[in-house]
Amino acid sequence: MSGTLFLCATPIGNLEDMTFRVIRVLKEVDLIAAEDTRNSIKLLNHFDIQTPMTSYHEYNKYEKGRKLVEKLQEGQDIALITDAGTPGISDPGEGLVKRCYEAGIHVTSLPGASACITALTLSGLSTRRFAFEAFLPTDKKEREQILREMERETRTIIMYEAPHRLLKTLRMLSERLGGERRITVCRELTKRYETAFATTLDEACVYYTVNEPKGECVLVIEGRSREEMVQEEKARWEKMGIKEHMEVYLSQGIEKKEAMKKVAKDRGVPKREIYNYLER
Fold first, then answer.
1. Are residues 51 and 109 both part of a single domain?
2. Of 177, 205, 224, which closes a domain?
3. How many Å from the N-terminal Cα to the C-terminal Cα in the chain?
4. Dist. CA 9–CA 109, nearest whole Å
5. What is the C-alpha to C-alpha distance for residues 2 and 98, in angstroms, rounded to an integer?
6. Residue 225 CA to chain centroid, in angstroms?
7. Of 113, 133, 163, at which residue does a domain stop?
8. What's the farthest any 2 CA atoms get from each other in the chain?
9. Apex CA 134: angle with CA 132 and CA 136, to 5°?
10. Per-residue pLDDT reduced to its tens digit, 73-132
């Protein structure tokens, strides 16, 4: 019978956020796979956890992932921990979970600290719908694609950023999303000097130009207004003549009657008005 992979959330700063369940499981499993064993040993020592530990990170995830699955198939129970927070969120843990499911191995997740959710609830922005972007891609082409998608994103956006890149990223976001867009910059979450700076993108750029940021940052950004998008779309169509507007849909193979319905909807007018105009 195969073992179980336990995804164990660890504190993102304050050690008091460690759950009793995670401590128990880390003591009971056969092996702990950690993103950085040098960092995790401090956590294990603090809670007097003596379980053997091995590394599992971005640079060995393929070979080590295969070996961990073999151990699980032999019946060993393994706990996966990240440097801080919940495994699988912006780290290679998701790859190991996928391997386990493909091998028919049982996986369970032990909930706990998560920087993105902590920042979202602290932000003062809408929590009903949100999109997690983690770190922006380093590849220029891929980053541009993500930024284009973000321009039309109506959900609250959550991002991670390192302090030395924060100002550059804020300026980029201000240019693409608009300087008046609201943002909450969260730093040092759960730690002594935790801050949640609620402001706008433009004001954040000004502030961090003269105040060097310290500590890992979570950016929570207001989604784009749906009403604003509708008005912009309507204005775009109104700049176009009705005949030209009709041609947009007719060129797509849409029948004239259906095209008139779409034009009327785009322009926010009755279909009869479009029909009368074209008849004239």
1. yes
2. 224
3. 79
4. 8
5. 16
6. 19
7. 113
8. 86
9. 120
10. 999 999 999 999 999 998 899 999 999 999 999 999 999 999 999 999 999 999 999 999
Averaged pLDDT score across all residues of the chain: 92
Q: Domain check: are 163 and 212 in the same one? A: yes
**pLDDT tens string 184-211:** 999 999 999 999 999 999 999 999 999 9
- Are 91 and 115 a contacting pair, CB within 8 Å? no
Tallying the residues shown for the chain, one arrives at 280
Q: What is the CATH number of the domain that holds 143?
A: 3.30.950.10
Q: What is the pLDDT of residues 206-231, one digit of tens each?
A: 999 999 998 889 999 999 988 777 77
Domain co-membership, 128 together with 184: yes
Residues 220 and 123 in one domain: yes
Burial of 75 (0-12, 13-18, 19+ CB in 10 A): exposed
Write the single-letter amino acid at 88: G
In the numeric block, which tokens belong to residue 31? Answer: 């092996």
Which of 57, 65, 56 lies closest to 102, judged by CA? 65
Q: Structurally, how many domains does the chain consist of?
A: 3
Same domain, 32 and 122: no
Phi, psi of 4 (to 5 degrees): -120, 140
Can you give the residue range of the structural domain that contains 274? 227-279
pTM value? 0.82
> Are 144 and 107 in a shared domain?
no
Decide: 221 and 173 in contact? Cβ < 8 Å.
Answer: yes
Task: For 12, list phi and psi in degrees, rounded to 5.
Answer: -95, 0
Confidence band of 10 (pLDDT split at 50, 70, 90):
very high
